[in-house]
Specification:
The protein is built from 19 helices and no strands. About 70% of the residues lie in helices and about 0% in strands. It starts with a helix and ends in a 12-residue tail after the last helix. It is mostly helical.
Length: about 400
């Protein structure tokens, strides 16, 4: 299920990455608003800058603005002009330089955050992408928590904030998806996990925060950092006891290790039940979702079968592992492991022929248990004459 939600997130990125910073109407921007008086020197030079189409003409005019009226509060306008100019010229070092200057003047400037995220995207600089993403997340959290200004009632202020956030929704989503996709591609699993958690903490209200934490847990699993994997998964389950991917991760881990077997069984049974009714995410075909939920249920039932093996309840193990087998056929690793387990359940019940069939199936597909199944088959008594191997 986590993989499917990832497909949705990455699908919308193609559209969002094409967006530039969108300027909300006056009064709906997040950050300082600096008015320019009509007819003033600043107004006159700004008109010249906006009218200039040749970059060679535009930059001297921006320099003129910065050296003249672009002082005091208008320094914010000057830095913003430089940021947008250097972005248009793909001079990203300069864009970052002036973006940082702008943040020093106005740490709450969401449009500047969008521009910095855009620059980080175009330079493929994941460190900057996450750093500016965290700046954006922090300023959004401060804005959401900000008290009403003098003369504004709390109810009116909440309404105004909602309108402003709605007006900036495209920019906010651009930031979230840009940062999420940038850190998702981090090659080292441990680094990817740490960055995903930083993303989730920076954007706790994001629709992608839960997915980020789930991917962090599985990334810690890949990095073999078990304590962090378990703590991240437990944190997610404390927020949502029906988090199917985390129920699967923990039931699979505990059953494989033979630890906390009662918890593993409860998680596996719950996951198997949830897989039957899990809602299909957007952007996923019926066929994709059917294959995904079958695999989820199969993994849960296989974990439950492994719990029964550890508890020496072999008849129950056979029942669960048999039910899991057809659901896991699309994944050789999961199927091979399940059949290897099934072979041992049959051996414990002294059903040698059935054990041989299951182990032969485990040995017939490429999986981590293939060699073990082949070795175990060599220890079994020969099949009766005329016996045909199943595959």
């Amino acid at each position: 299920m986590r993989k499917i939600s990832e497909m949705f997130v990455r699908a919308i990125a193609a559209t969002l990455f094409s967006l530039l910073a969108l300027s909300p109407a006056k009064g709906q921007q997040i950050g300082k608003y600096v008015p320019i008086d009509a007819g003033s020197e600043a107004d006159r030079i700004m008109k010249e800058i906006n009218a200039a189409t040749d970059p060679a003409q535009k930059l001297p005019l921006i320099d003129k603005f910065a050296a003249g009226p672009g002082q005091g509060d208008l320094a914010l306008v000057a830095d913003d002009l430089y940021v947008n100019y250097y972005l248009s010229q793909k001079n990203y070092d300069k864009a970052f330089e002036y973006g940082d200057k702008l943040f020093a003047i106005d740490p709450e400037n969401l449009n500047n955050a969008v521009n910095m995220i855009r620059a980080a995207n175009e330079t493929h600089d994941t460190n900057k992408l996450l750093s500016y993403g965290e700046k954006a997340g922090a300023l959004l959290q401060r804005y959401k928590a900000s008290p009403p200004p003098a003369g504004t009632t709390p109810d009116n202020w909440q309404m105004q904030k909602k309108q402003t956030l709605d007006a900036n929704a495209d920019n906010i989503q651009y930031i979230e998806v840009s940062v999420y996709n940038g850190i998702y591609s981090t090659p080292a699993a441990a680094d990817r996990a740490e960055r995903l958690i930083r993303f989730a903490h920076a954007f706790p209200d994001s629709r992608y925060a839960e997915a980020a934490m789930g991917l962090a847990a599985t990334s810690y699993q890949q990095a073999q950092d078990v304590p962090k994997m378990l703590s991240t998964a437990d944190e997610l389950l404390s927020k949502d006891p029906n988090d199917l991917p985390m129920l699967l991760l923990l039931s699979d881990y505990y059953s494989e290790k033979g630890e906390q077997l009662d918890k593993a069984a409860a998680y596996a049974q719950k996951a198997a039940s949830l897989a039957d009714t899990a809602p299909k995410p957007e952007g996923v075909t019926d066929e994709q979702w059917k294959r995904e939920t079958m695999l989820q249920k199969g993994i849960a039932l296989s974990a439950l079968g492994q719990v029964y093996l550890f508890k020496k309840e072999n008849a129950k193990a056979v029942e669960s592992l048999q039910a899991a087998a057809p659901l896991l056929k699309s994944d050789d690793a999961s199927y091979g492991r399940n059949q290897y387990r099934l072979g041992f359940a049959y051996l414990n019940l002294r059903k040698i022929s059935d054990a041989r069939t299951a182990l032969t199936q485990a040995a017939s597909v490429k999986n981590p248990y293939q060699a073990l199944a082949q070795e175990k088959l060599k220890t079994l008594p020969p099949a009766p004459a005329g016996h045909r191997k199943s595959s």
